[in-house]
Amino acid sequence: MEPILNALAPLWAVCKIPADLPLLPFARQKPLPAGVRCAVCAAFPYRLPEAYDSNRNIARYAVGADYHAVCGARLARACKALRVLFPGEVFEWYCDNAPLPEVALAAHAGLGVRGQHNLLITKAFGTWVFLGEIVTTAALPAKSNASLPKINCRQCPAPCKSSCPTGTLQAGFCREDCVSHISQKKGLLTHEEETALRQAQTAWGCDLCQEACVANRHAQTNPLPEFLQSPTPCLAEETPIEGRAYAWRGRDVLLRNLRILGRVDTKNLYSQAY
């Protein structure tokens, strides 16, 4: 099994699914197959070298190809191989659509620890990873190729909290005030929301809490090779959006954000899609 998982991702861990792990209620989540009891958690590094940071105006996760397609293809191949290895057992993969809380599950499996910014911190790549899961009815032994970071996040002065323009991390976490969430909202933004985008200087997503995270100071820069193909760090009015993580939201939201940053003509902002 290990060769299959090593081909899946640089970091992986196998664990039993805790009986008390709550399911997420969101409608877009794929349901769990009946009888699943174990999970393979995988971490896919995506941070590109600093050369790609010049003039970047989107979150690092969106610079390369859409991670849903990249990580999904790897997870699908692993599932196919595992079904051959364990005939009669169910293997189902998830990437950003699992009904299980993926950070909590990954931390339980031993991939890393949960930070005060609510992201998973891995020893090798810090927070700069996508997470994916394979759930199965097979009784797999618990194992991992990852080492836990030597960090006590709860004793950290938490620069991640003070880095957020909206202060959403100061008292728990409010998704509505997260800059990344604001950048993805449709329609007109409030004055306060526009101000937050300008402060973060982002047309899509936000990295401020990750850039401030102490655990990321020595994180490796070794992304999956798929993310090195045709990276686009700077979003512009004419940037093709097909095959990108922001394509699902449509061009109008991107144009609005670029207008807020002063990078596009107001006359090109609105269309019938609003």
| Major beta sheet summary | 5 strands, antiparallel
Q: Shape from CA axes?
A: globular
Distance between the termini: 48 Å
Q: Assess the beta-strand content as a share of residues.
A: 5-15%
Helix content: 25-40%
H and E order: HEEHEHEEEEHHHHH
Structural class by secondary-structure content: alpha+beta
Overall number of strands: 7
Major sheet strand order: 3-6-2-1-7
* Unreliable residue runs: 269-274
Helix tally equals 8
The radius of gyration over CA amounts to 19 Å
Number of domains: 2
The mean pLDDT is 93
What does this structure look like?
It is a single chain. The protein has two domains: 2-144, no CATH class; 154-220 and 237-268, no CATH class. A five-stranded antiparallel β-sheet has the order 3-6-2-1-7, with helices on both faces. The termini are far apart. The model is unreliable at 269-274 (pLDDT under 50). Helix content is 26%, strand content 12%. It has eight helices and seven strands, in the order αββαβαββββααααα. It is of the alpha+beta class.
Supply database-style keywords.
26% helix; 2 domains; 8 helices; disordered C terminus; two-stranded antiparallel ribbon; 274 residues; alpha+beta; 5-stranded antiparallel sheet
Helix and strand arrangement:
Elements: H1 2-8, E1 11-16, E2 38-45, H2 67-85, E3 91-94, H3 102-109, E4 113-114, E5 120-121, E6 129-136, E7 143-144, H4 159-163, H5 179-184, H6 191-200, H7 208-212, H8 251-260
Antiparallel strand pairs: 1-2, 1-7, 2-6, 3-6, 4-5
Helix pairs in contact: 1-2
